[in-house]
Amino acid sequence: MSAAPRSAADPAPIERHPLLAKAGFVLVAVVLVLLPFALTGIGTAWVRITNLAILFVLLSLGLNIVVGFAGLLDLGYIAFYAVGAYVYALLASPHFGLHLPFWAILPVGALVACMFGVLLGTPTLKLRGDYLAIVTLGFGEIIRIFLNNLSQPVNITNGPQGITLIDPFRIGSFNFAQTETIAGVTFTGPIKYYYFLVVVMVLIVALNLRLQNSRVGRAWEAIREDEIAARAMGINTRNMKLLAFAMGASFGGVAGGMFSAIQGFISPESFVLVESINVLAMVVLGGMGNVFGVVIGAVLLSFTPEVLRYTVGPIQQQLFGRTLLDPEVIRMLLFGFALVLMMLFRPAGLLPSALRKRELEANRAPGNG
Amino acid sequence: MSAGTNALLTASAIAKRFGGVQALSDVSFHIGRGEIYGLIGPNGAGKTSLFNVLTGIYAPDGGTFTFDGAPLANLKPNQIAERGIARTFQNIRLFANLSALENVMIGRHVRTHATVFGAIFRGPRTRAEEKAIERRAYELLDYVGVQKRANDLAKHLAYGDQRRLEIARALATEPKLLALDEPAAGMNATETATLKGLLQRIRADGTTILLIEHDMKLVMSVCDRVMVLDYGKKIAEGPAALVQKDEKVISAYLGGDIALNLKGAA
Q: For A207, which residue in chain B has the nearest alpha carbon?
């Protein structure tokens, strides 16, 4: 071994070109900093849409730990988002008259969601694939139905009316919901949240990358590939699966807390099954197990319906002089069509995990080993 | 050799039933430290069942294993691996979509300690451990002779290389006893010869081997002692050369009449 052994887990080819990688990072950073102001130019709604997209990025990254790394199909993931959201809402709204600071509640939300993750993980340890999917789906529904009905006999969740007037993030007199002008630049509420969300997103992306490329991440991947062999190699599959559920759930909990604060209002309707499936679609579309792929998948799937919402109508006006099809209807049609095409032509996702990508190269050039 | 202090593994009266099939009944044996112990028998004789009971995949219906001075009762497969028994599988079970190197790195899991927090904060200890894991994995790939394929996906390796990669992965857990389930299956003569050398080297380096194999030439040339199973029962045990001539063994493999005819002809 003369050359330093290169880790096979080096995720992206970009890491082999340090200069290019650095330039890329700077470019991404500049775009991320300037983005909200550019979006404000198009329309203020777009900053809010971006914020929601980032929340979905966080959710997808959390689900990616469970589905992408450990290979456990979870169809009830939105339940953890709901738990985080309700923990925040209950501890920072007039509903109970509690107004705890956000930096105290977000970790609590993560912890409670984490406990729910273990709660879901424990009875499902022996299940895999479709069986696990069914149980997790049921779990997601149970949580939503509880939220819907826990207004009696003691009013905890306020039932279908949801919880209103949830506190925004506040640090001293700095309020995330208020517009403020600092050094001649106007920061609206959504823009302030945007920067906060971007920081959290960058942290969680880094955390995911480190987890994947570690003893723990390899153990998860071993379970995904072959559980019996993983156990025979000394991996405590029970603990590692619970850990995956717990980590994924706590990410969902954090995202849920921020969702609460940004929206100021939550109700069980935000946490329906379709949302779970949506997050799963983001993970699959982006490329299961590939952190950057999952980020791209989440961004695309969050923005596409919104872009269509604003373009389908005007385009019809231009082409035919009037609106033939209701934008709401054709929007979801196009969206579904795009998903089907994606899965036909890139079944492994937009950015397949680094190893799968290498596999394709090997297929193209057999005998290069 | 008797089952004294020198025995690494002692099995007494192991039994396992699957519904109406008695897969193992009253199987007792011991494996001495540093031995290569062969386990042979016709298809369906219960060899792999014995492996699965030994490595905790199934719980035995009766009997006990004593390994390295302590019983192996009610242990899960991962705990058995921790105690120092590593195995390979008859139908190769590599982590197909991970690289060969990563497969062996996963074998190091049970002897390393990094937690989630270590993974996230990546302190000096975790980084040192990661480096050591990678270095050891390369050494083991080199040891079994598939170092050139380190960065290829496990499923793209040639069949013989996959078998050897499985051995490297098992060795990564630092076993005292290495249990190999038909490692030569599907290998050509050259590969089998290389495998024989590898087995002898592993033994010389201090690991005891339990070997299930159908390639009799390999079994006879490499094993110190051999046990023969038939219909879940032990029918013979002893040095390879003696077992080979045992009437019961011949009739188990060839059928009773043929064995008698052979005897008559001789």
A: B120
Phi, psi at B234, each rounded to 5°: -80, 120
> Is some CB atom of chain B closer than 8 A to the CB atom of A6?
yes
DSSP symbol at B185: T
- What is A13-362's CATH number, 1.10.3470, 1.10.8, 1.10.357, 2.40.50? 1.10.3470
For the ranges A75-84, A324-333, B43-52, the lowest mean pLDDT is seen at: A324-333
| Cβ(B179)–Cβ(B55) below 8 Å | yes
Sign of the Cα torsion A147, A148, A152, A156 reads positive
Residue-wise pLDDT tens digits, A263-319: 999 999 999 999 999 999 999 988 888 999 999 999 998 988 888 888 877 888 888
As a whole number, mean pLDDT of residues B95-102 equals 93
| CA A248 centroid distance within chain | 10
Taking the C-alpha atoms of residue B226 and residue B38, their distance in angstroms, rounded to an integer, is 4
Are B96 and A226 an interchain contact pair (Cβ–Cβ within 8 Å)? yes
pLDDT tens digits, one per residue of A245-263 = 999 999 999 999 999 999 9
Show me where the domains of chain A are located: 13-362
In sign, the C-alpha dihedral spanning B163, B169, B172, B173 is negative
pTM across the whole model: 0.88
Is omega for the bond preceding A153 within 30 degrees of 0, making it cis? Answer: yes
Kindly determine whether residue B101 and residue A216, on different chains, have CB atoms separated by under 8 Å.
no
